[in-house]
Amino acid sequence: MELDRRGTELLFQVLTEREEKNSVAIASNESFGGWTKTFTDPRLCAAIVDRLTFGGTIIETGTDSYRLASTRARAEQQAVG
């Protein structure tokens, strides 16, 4: 989903204010390089990525779907047991 400039600015403001007070968790199916599809202003996109990654922990789970793997594991357990 693409955010217009105003939406991106508002999200940036929320992230900036939140960063000063508490943790932020973000989940995305897109790598940071693809975030310009959503945040079409390159400077704002870079600022958002900067805010989210500074002092943070990035956890990459790979390209396989966690939900699909979980469903398959449950199906295998049910078949066995």
In short:
The protein is mainly alpha-helical and 81 residues long.
Describe the structure.
This protein has one domain. It has helices at residues 5-19, 42-53, 66-80. The mean pLDDT is 88. It is 52% helix and 0% strand. The longest helix has 15 residues, at 5-19. The chain is built from 3 helices and no strands. The termini are far apart. It is mainly α and 81 residues long.
Largest sheet: none
Q: What is the total number of structural domains?
A: 1
Strand content: under 5%
SSE-based structural type: mainly alpha
Distance between the termini: 42 Å
Number of H- or I-type helical stretches: 3
Number of β-strand runs: 0
Spatial extent as radius of gyration: 17 Å
Mean pLDDT: 88
- Which sequence of SSEs, written as H and E, runs from N to C? HHH
Give the % helix: 40-55%
Low-confidence stretches: none
Shape: elongated
Helix-strand layout with pairing:
Elements: H1 5-19, H2 42-53, H3 66-80
Helix pairs in contact: 1-2
Question: Tags for this entry?
Answer:
elongated, 81 residues, 3 helices, mainly alpha
